[in-house]
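Structure first, sequence second, as always.
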């Protein structure tokens, strides 16, 4: 692994919606980063790319300049998209959000101010992008069996390994494309957006340092150097550099202060899709079985509702000492749900049911989608567009995704085999969490929970929670959290009532919640 790649030289000029953005010179560049600051212009490796993928958006260095960025963004918003234009629009959004966050932090603002400010920036930058392609795909879907992998990576030390394993274990690595949202502590961000990586401005997560007299864990947050950039590490590997050079890796860099949870990051990652046939969303700390790509393609085609089918599961954990190739095992169905009363903002959690026996002729239906792994044709992005208005959400994105997809006519299936493995992370590892960044930035204990408790009502509203009616939300002064709800709520193919019966859910009026019941048809694999 190598040190973090930092930007050298150059000015990043972006013009969007009357805004003029200037990125100053960035110092403290590692030797390796210099060696990979190549032109990334059209070459023999990129000559076969579709026109909308040219010019290639730079993979390195971080926050690199892009020729004609302002005109590419403007044309994209007018309905003539390029990947470089989409990335420019997203960078404009992240840049504006950064300074909005800094201003709010200086004022020690209240949750309502923080949320309203986010919505203002999102409406300014993200709404026009979504409006321009409402009801259609941004790019034409290529019928070449290609796969786009969406990766949201928050200060991820296993990102380079995940990319290496994904490409090396695939049957057709030439058909694998990655869109990574790299949310790192790159160093100390100065007032003009310059990154200074000379000191130790970053922090660890809560590390367990011992036990107190009552036998409970004692934790500590320590200073830390800037995070390593997994993209730079991966692109430096001789066997994999070509995938960075030829446009199969697309990256959006985000400072950790703008890391607002997995649902938000997955929205950004979904925008890096470039016309590939299939869309797969995964976490960024994975291992893969041999030919996992071809096996998932074949598995989804075996479903009875294909092409409107989604494969989803919670992958098993992996032990780093057991090598990096996943040994295939029988998959488990996502049949159950529950509400953990100890959650700061309780909402439905998805859980597994019974495993396949191994002799089933085809995948069977399940009622839930896991956000950490699902696989579908790219039309999913048109029918179930990711919601840009759920920052800070952690729990809740899965029931929202499940209900939206199913009511839009997509059937959900458990894959019969586990082809990926996931690193499940106990808190004692001391790995940083996005809410720790939020709490440090706004200097108020539990700030993430305070904003999350409000924004999560956007999801609860269409899921059917009794305490999240439009009137209830408006009475608290947070009606703006329902912005553009008609575009990111339930589908019109099947109804809310239909889904509630299908998933065996009911409204618990007394506890103002959604109640989960045993789902026997799912465990028994009774629905093809």
């Amino acid at each position: 692994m190598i040190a973090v790649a930092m930007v050298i030289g150059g000015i990043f000029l972006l013009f969007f919606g009357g805004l003029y953005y200037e990125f100053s010179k960035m110092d403290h560049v590692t030797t390796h980063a210099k060696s990979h600051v190549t032109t990334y212009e059209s070459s023999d490796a990129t000559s076969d790319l579709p026109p909308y993928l040219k010019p290639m958006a730079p993979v390195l260095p971080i926050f690199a300049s892009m020729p004609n960025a302002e005109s590419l963004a403007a044309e994209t918003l007018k309905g003539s998209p390029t990947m470089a234009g989409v990335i420019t629009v997203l960078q404009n959004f992240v840049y504006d959000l950064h300074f909005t966050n800094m201003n709010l932090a200086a004022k020690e603002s209240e949750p309502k101010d923080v949320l309203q400010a986010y919505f203002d920036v999102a409406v300014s930058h993200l709404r026009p992008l979504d409006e321009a392609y409402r009801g259609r795909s941004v790019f034409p879907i290529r019928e070449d069996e290609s796969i786009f992998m969406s990766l949201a990576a928050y200060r991820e030390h296993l990102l380079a390994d995940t990319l290496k394993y994904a490409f090396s274990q695939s049957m057709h690595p030439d058909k694998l494309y990655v869109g990574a949202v790299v949310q790192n502590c790159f160093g100390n961000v100065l007032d003009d957006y310059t990154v200074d990586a000379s000191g130790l401005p970053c922090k660890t997560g809560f590390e367990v340092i011992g036990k107190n007299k009552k036998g409970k864990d004692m934790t500590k947050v320590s200073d830390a150097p800037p995070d390593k950039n997994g993209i730079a590490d991966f692109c430096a590997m001789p066997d994999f550099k070509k995938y960075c050079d030829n446009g199969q890796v697309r990256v959006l860099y985000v400072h950790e202060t703008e890391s607002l949870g997995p649902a938000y990051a997955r929205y950004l990652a979904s925008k890096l899709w470039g016309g590939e046939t299939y869309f797969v969303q995964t976490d960024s700390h994975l291992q893969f079985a041999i030919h996992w790509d071809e096996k998932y393609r074949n598995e989804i085609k075996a479903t009875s509702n294909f092409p409107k089918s989604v494969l989803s599961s919670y992958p098993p954990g992996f032990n780093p000492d057991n090598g990096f190739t996943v040994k295939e095992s029988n998959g488990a169905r996502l049949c159950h749900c529950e509400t953990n009363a100890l959650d700061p903002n309780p909402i439905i959690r998805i859980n597994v049911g019974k495993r396949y026996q191994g002799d089933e002729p085809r995948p069977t239906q399940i009622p839930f989608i896991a956000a950490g792994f699902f696989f579908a044709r790219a039309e999913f992005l048109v029918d179930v567009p990711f919601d840009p208005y759920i920052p800070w959400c952690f729990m809740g994105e899965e029931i929202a995704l499940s209900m939206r997809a199913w009511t839009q006519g997509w059937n959900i299936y458990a894959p019969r085999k586990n082809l990926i493995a996931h690193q499940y992370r106990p808190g004692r590892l001391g790995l940083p969490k996005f809410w720790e960044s939020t709490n440090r930035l706004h200097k108020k204990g539990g700030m993430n929970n305070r904003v999350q408790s409000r924004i999560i009502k956007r999801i609860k509203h269409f899921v059917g929670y009794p305490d999240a009616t439009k009137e209830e939300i408006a009475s608290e002064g947070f009606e703006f959290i329902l912005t553009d709800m008609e575009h990111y709520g339930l589908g019109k193919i099947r109804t809310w009532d239909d889904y509630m019966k299908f998933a065996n859910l009911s409204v618990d009026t007394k506890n103002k919640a959604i109640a989960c019941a045993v789902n026997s048809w799912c465990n028994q694999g009774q629905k093809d």
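Margin note: The domain at 12-427 is CATH 3.90.550.10 (Spore Coat Polysaccharide Biosynthesis Protein SpsA; Chain A).
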